[in-house]
Input
Amino acid sequence: MKYHPINSDLFIQNRAHFSAQMKPSSLAVFNSNDIYPIGADSALPFQQDRNIFYLSGVDQESSILVLFPDCPNPKHREILFLTETNEHIAVWEGAKLDKDAAFKTSGIKTVYWLQDFERVFKEIMTQCNTVYINTNEHYRAHVETETREDRFNSWLRKKYPAHSVAKSNPILQRLRAVKNQIELDIIQEACNITEKGFRRILEFVKPGVMEYNIEAEFMHEFLNNRSKGFAYTPIVASGNSANVLHYIENNKECKAGDLILLDVGAEYANYSSDMTRTIPVSGRFTDRQKAVYNAVNRIKTAATNMLVPGTIWADYHVEVGKIVTSELLGLGLLDKADIQNENPEWPAYKKYFMHGTSHHMGLDTHDYGILTEPMKANMVFTVEPGIYIPDEKFGIRLEDDVVIQDTGSPFNLMRNIPLEADEIESLMNK
Ligand code: GLY
Ligand code: MN
Ligand code: MN
Output
């Protein structure tokens, strides 16, 4: 791993919180992700399943975590099953976790090799009535492949048909949404790496650079700072491409007078950061660009201040919509008649701002969290309003990641990343 070791207290606490919510006489199983093939003998770089990582810190394929809090044998209350490491594997792939390293990483004392799984699992399944299986119920999930976890769940239900099945997902959605201080420090590090990338970009951009040159500059800074790279496919969208919300081609020339929308975040230790900035190719905004920019920035500030304990995500979006509407009136993009005639199901402002303002952020960029439940302290949300104007060939979005506090406004993890239009201009013209 490129990242510094994570304090295993995080994983010990996460398991304690998960176990506390399990029914009596139950166990829970979590699997690593597969390594996904590309073709011939090549594969995509491994990305650990976020749940087994959250509960163990194990960042290695073919691993299984079992939690059985009231197991009669105390040794079997937490078990890791790992690929047996040996000299052959060490020579070809580098050493995998041995039992001592697995303990240091996870705080789990009982570590078996994978070949012992079925035998040990059979024994502990005779000692419980319910098994928690892990399915992905994220509101945006759209998965066509069968994951390793899915295959395991099918195997388990066939092999042990008399056990009751319970869902891990709601427990994980609630736990993962509220961040521990160790996690907040890691997310802060991801944001700090993103900041370094952005400052590099401000010095680099000039008319004629290609969008992929900018992507490369970010990657240079990310890799030099122990990040694996982008937390999500980056958007480097100059000119009218900013109005294509999921533009990821990043293959055009940045032209004088245009803006570039940069939705780019570094990952660090499997945690995301998620930033958007919009900058002028020539280093100066036009008056019109600046007016829209400042409107988006005001919306962002007002929206951020609404992220307090108790806020309901859907109500928040209605309130943000009102602020966006008033800014669009001020910019002359909507008039009173547009508002009077608007369809309440799709208010007039959505012509210029058609996506959500905030999502949970953490181990996944669009992280777990149950959106119908009130916001709580230590949840991390993005705040990312935009105004997209294809008729004027530019679009502006600004996005920061913030932590909800017990009282007062959220803490901005991106407070050091230049945001004000004047600061962007002065850094670009240094
Ligand atoms: N970069 C993905 C998002 O902003 O939601
Ligand atoms: Mn983003
Ligand atoms: Mn986002």
In short: Residues 263, 274, 276, 399 surround manganese (II) ion (ligand 2) (CB under 6 Å). The longest strand covers residues 26-31.
